[in-house]
Amino acid sequence: MEENHEEHMCVFVRHNGVGQIIERVKGAKWMCEHCGRVANKPEYLCSPTSVDV
Protein backbone atom coordinates (compact mmCIF):
# COMPACT_ATOMS: atom_id res chain seq x y z
CA MET A 1 0.00 0.00 0.00
CA GLU A 2 1.31 3.43 -0.81
CA GLU A 3 2.49 5.89 1.79
CA ASN A 4 -0.33 7.80 3.55
CA HIS A 5 -2.98 5.64 1.89
CA GLU A 6 -4.99 5.91 5.12
CA GLU A 7 -5.55 9.58 4.22
CA HIS A 8 -7.14 8.66 0.88
CA MET A 9 -10.93 8.78 0.85
CA CYS A 10 -11.31 5.04 0.12
CA VAL A 11 -9.82 4.30 3.57
CA PHE A 12 -10.62 7.56 5.38
CA VAL A 13 -14.41 7.09 5.15
CA ARG A 14 -14.18 3.77 7.02
CA HIS A 15 -12.54 5.31 10.09
CA ASN A 16 -13.89 8.87 10.37
CA GLY A 17 -17.18 10.61 11.03
CA VAL A 18 -19.49 12.42 8.67
CA GLY A 19 -18.21 15.85 9.74
CA GLN A 20 -14.63 15.02 8.82
CA ILE A 21 -15.72 13.49 5.51
CA ILE A 22 -17.79 16.56 4.61
CA GLU A 23 -14.74 18.79 5.16
CA ARG A 24 -12.87 16.76 2.52
CA VAL A 25 -15.64 16.65 -0.08
CA LYS A 26 -17.05 20.18 0.27
CA GLY A 27 -16.35 22.01 -3.00
CA ALA A 28 -14.88 18.86 -4.56
CA LYS A 29 -12.86 19.41 -7.72
CA TRP A 30 -11.13 16.03 -7.86
CA MET A 31 -12.38 12.50 -8.53
CA CYS A 32 -10.55 9.19 -8.10
CA GLU A 33 -10.25 7.29 -11.37
CA HIS A 34 -10.28 3.99 -9.42
CA CYS A 35 -13.27 4.25 -7.08
CA GLY A 36 -15.12 7.40 -8.18
CA ARG A 37 -14.91 9.12 -4.79
CA VAL A 38 -14.54 12.89 -4.83
CA ALA A 39 -12.47 15.31 -2.74
CA ASN A 40 -11.43 18.95 -2.58
CA LYS A 41 -7.68 18.13 -2.65
CA PRO A 42 -5.95 15.61 -4.93
CA GLU A 43 -3.85 14.19 -2.07
CA TYR A 44 -7.06 12.74 -0.60
CA LEU A 45 -7.39 10.32 -3.56
CA CYS A 46 -5.39 7.38 -4.93
CA SER A 47 -5.65 8.34 -8.59
CA PRO A 48 -6.98 11.92 -8.79
CA THR A 49 -8.27 13.56 -11.93
CA SER A 50 -9.60 17.11 -12.11
CA VAL A 51 -13.34 17.57 -12.56
CA ASP A 52 -13.20 21.37 -12.32
CA VAL A 53 -15.60 22.72 -14.91
Q: How would you describe this protein?
A:
The chain is of the alpha+beta class and 53 residues long. The protein has one domain. It is built from two helices and three strands, in the order H-H-E-E-E. It has a three-stranded antiparallel beta sheet with strand order 2-1-3, with no helix packed on it. The mean pLDDT is 91.
How many helices does DSSP assign? 2
How many discrete domains? 1
Structural class call reads alpha+beta
CA-atom Rg in angstroms = 10 Å
Order of helices and strands: HHEEE
Percentage beta strand: 15-25%
- Mean pLDDT value: 91
For the biggest sheet, the summary is:
3 strands, antiparallel
Instruction: Bin the helical content.
Output: 25-40%
Shape field: globular
At a glance:
By secondary structure, the chain is of the alpha+beta class. It is built from two helices and three strands; from the N terminus they run H-H-E-E-E.
Q: What are the defining features of this structure?
A:
single chain; 53 residues; alpha+beta; three-stranded antiparallel β-sheet; 2 helices; 28% helix; globular
Secondary structure layout plus pairing:
Elements: H1 9-15, H2 18-25, E1 30-32, E2 38-39, E3 48-50
Antiparallel strand pairs: 1-2, 1-3
